[in-house]
Amino acid sequence: MIGTVLLAAILLAGCAAGTPTKEDTVQAAPTAEHQRRQAADSVEETMRRSGVDWDADQSDEYAQDCVLADGSAGALYNIVRTGAGVDDPEAVTKAVGTAWVADGLKVEYSTDEMTSGAKRYLVNGGGGAVERIQFGAATTKTTMSGVSKCGTGDAADLG
Question: DSSP character for 51?
């Protein structure tokens, strides 16, 4: 009898705790700075893997407004890098894309023509730690851009 009463008390106590609400289970969005670091790490790793000679003076990074999943305002980062041309842009681009696939990104390849007339090979990636990332290589120039996921913060305060 005591065992039955004890079991009933335990079951009722568990029910009294209630079912978790959406508010109890929603996690706070990461900060924009955290998201920037994730995207910057992806860009820097791609720069290293590509073997391209990157020009630090041709680098840019800036914040812009975005909307978080809950509808509130947030910020994301754009990261842009420029480097030297490569002898075999198609091979370098495919190697970058293969590495991104191994990292869990979905990729899409394309080509276009630069203003210099050089054929540029592109790979666009998305998923993982970045919203999107692009690598483009030609014999005259290589470019890369990454966009972080939206995080908490105000773009105006982040510079």
Answer: T
pTM to 2 decimals? 0.79
Coil, helix or strand for 96?
helix
Which tens digit of pLDDT belongs to each residue from 26-68? Answer: 567 899 999 999 999 999 999 999 999 999 888 999 999 999 9
**Does residue 135 contact residue 141 with C-beta atoms inside 8 Å?**
no
Report how far apart the first and last C-alpha atoms of the chain are (Å, whole number).
69
Name the class of domain 29-158. alpha beta
DSSP per residue over 111-139, as a string?
EEE-TTS-EEEEEEEEETTEEEEEEEE-S
Separation of alpha carbons 79 and 39, rounded Å = 8
82-91 residues labelled b (16+ CB within 10 A) or e (exposed): bbebbeebee
